[in-house]
Structures are given as structure tokens and as C-alpha cells.
Amino acid sequence: MPENYRKDPEAVSRLSKDQYRVTQKNATEPAFRNEFWDNKEPGIYVDVVSGEPLFASVNKYDSRSGWPSFTVPIEPRNVVEKKDFGLGMVRTEVRSAHGDSHLGHVFPDGPADQGGLRYCINSAALRFIPLDDLEREGYGEYRALFDHTHQTDQTDQASDEQTSDEQADETRSASR
């Protein structure tokens, strides 16, 4: 995985109109009408301009805001927080450290048991990399974030299969 993340002028030139407005002009995309607000697929989210890893689906939750929301960044050094005095209020803007892309804002109303933060992020600032593509895309080191999740899923599946087998055995015994 490249460690020399930077604002790539070529990547900026390929941005869609909405991606450019969000990442380069600090705009906000519409709630509930953006690509990742309800994405439940496992994987990571990287800056659409620099490729720097930002967030993971294991830290994503439904905040009912209409934007992708995360409790923590996967690489805190890749996320910069700045005071935002726009809209007549003080908020905390979130930007990518190396790409300098506007990502969204962080609020103190996230799940208390997970630190209490809500990183409310624009889909247009993100590129999603599915779990199965992490190695191919150069982000294989982040697969470890999902190992526990997949082990739990496999354990649950094995438990469900064992329960089904036990129920089948009981049914066969009862019918004898």
C-alpha cells in the first residue's frame, strides 16, 4: 500500500461534479441520496483523491442522518479536524490529512459505548473497497479488522448447523 498519499491532480481531474464540489469546495451532498449512506457491505473507505485509508465498515453505524456515519477513523493520522464557523454555528470539519479533501463533520452525538463520536461523512469524498478486494487494491493489512467478524459469523453458522442437525436427530428419534 502506498504510504506517500498526496493530493493527486490527475485524480482531482477525474472527479465527478458532485465529488469535486464536496472534496474541493467543501459542499455537502443530499442526505439519503448518496452512494454509501446505507451500504452494509464489509470493507474500507478511502479518500477519493489521495487513496489514504479513512474508515472501515466495522465502525460504521446507522445514525439515521442519511450520510455514512462512523465512530472512529481507521487511521487517525489520515484525518484532520478543523473548526468550521459556517452556517452561523461552530462545528468540527473533517478533512483528509494528505489529500486535503473535505470529508464532512464530526459530532459528539455518536454511540456512547463506542466513544460518543459521529463522523458524518459525504459519500462523494469516499471510494469503497470491498473486503474481498483489499489485497488486490493494496490495502491487505486492513483485512485483520474483519477477522473477528468473520470468525464470529463462521462460529454462528457452525452453531446454527449443529442445532439443525440436533433437531433433525430428535425428529428421527421421535418418529421411531
Q: How far apart are the termini? A: 61 Å
Task: Tally the beta strands.
Answer: 9
In the predicted model, the low-confidence regions spanning at least 5 consecutive residues are 151-176
Strand order of the largest sheet: 3-4-8-7-6-5
**What is the helix tally?**
3
Task: Note the run of SSEs as H and E.
Answer: HHEEEEEEEEEH
Globular, elongated, flat, extended or rod-shaped: what is the shape? globular
Helical residues, percent: 25-40%
Overall mean pLDDT score? 87
Rg calc: 20 Å
Largest sheet geometry: 6 strands, antiparallel
Alpha-beta content class: alpha+beta
Strand content: 15-25%
Structure description:
The chain is α+β, with helices and mostly antiparallel strands. It is 26% helix and 23% strand. The protein contains three helices and nine strands. The protein has a six-stranded antiparallel β-sheet. Strands 2-1-9 form a three-stranded antiparallel β-sheet, with no helix packed on it. The longest helix has 31 residues, at 144-174. It is globular and about 45 Å long. The termini are far apart.
Topology:
Elements: H1 9-13, H2 17-25, E1 43-47, E2 53-56, E3 60-61, E4 69-70, E5 79-84, E6 91-96, E7 102-107, E8 118-121, E9 126-130, H3 144-174
Antiparallel strand pairs: 1-2, 1-9, 3-4, 4-8, 5-6, 6-7, 7-8
